[in-house]
Amino acid sequence: MVKKLYLTRHAQAEHNVASDWSIPDAKLTPLGQKQSRELNELTKDTFQRTAQLIVCSPLLRPMETMLLGYPSLMKRLEGEGKPVIITDLLQEVNSTPCDVPTYPPSAIKEALGGIFKDLDFSGLGEGYATKKGIWDPANVEERCRKVRKMLNEREEEEIVVVAHGDILRQLVDGDGSRRPWGNAEVKIFTFSEGSHDLVEVADVDPESETAGPTSGGM
């Protein structure tokens, strides 16, 4: 079995525009919503037809990117009894306000007019918004090891992951990565044989007006 991971960075969010990391749990801009819809057009006839699972960060911007970018995939998987997995292990690395998830889960369900009300947040850990313990930026390497192990040990062969620039770079390259990763860009990875190490297979890059920095400056 050759496993494929479709690693998706969220579309442009408010903090990307002026590198303003003080915006709490920044949501998508109108351009980001447009990029997400373009992502849907780009992928609706390809891996949205074949992917078997979606795993997403609990912050607002990747979840909104997912809703707008992968609607047919979400609908199909829900019909198959495989709802989105929201995992706090995929939250962004840093502890700046834009990278801290909304708390409590009931507030996430009420955010942005209630667009996330049908998602399941029961898997979030009690301290998911504290940036302490496993969510401390100092522990990001351990967090990424857990994510890679979890994804590699799942039975699904094609998994869509929606998250953030810095955590995705850390996930695939480790500390200090400067790998370019644009807003709403998808990179396809697989696992090296016999290990949890990731190897890039291809790049799905929707045309967008900006790559947009992450809170880590890249």
UniProtKB/TrEMBL annotation:
The terms under GO molecular function for this entry are: phosphatase activity
User: Which GO cellular component terms, listed alphabetically, does the Swiss-Prot or TrEMBL entry include?
Assistant: cytoplasm
Span of the signal peptide = none
Write down the Gene3D superfamilies for this protein, in alphabetical order.
Answer: Phosphoglycerate mutase-like
Q: Which InterPro entries match?
A: His_Pase_superF_clade-1, His_PPase_superfam, PGM_Phosphatase
This one is known as Histidine phosphatase superfamily
Origin species: Dioszegia hungarica
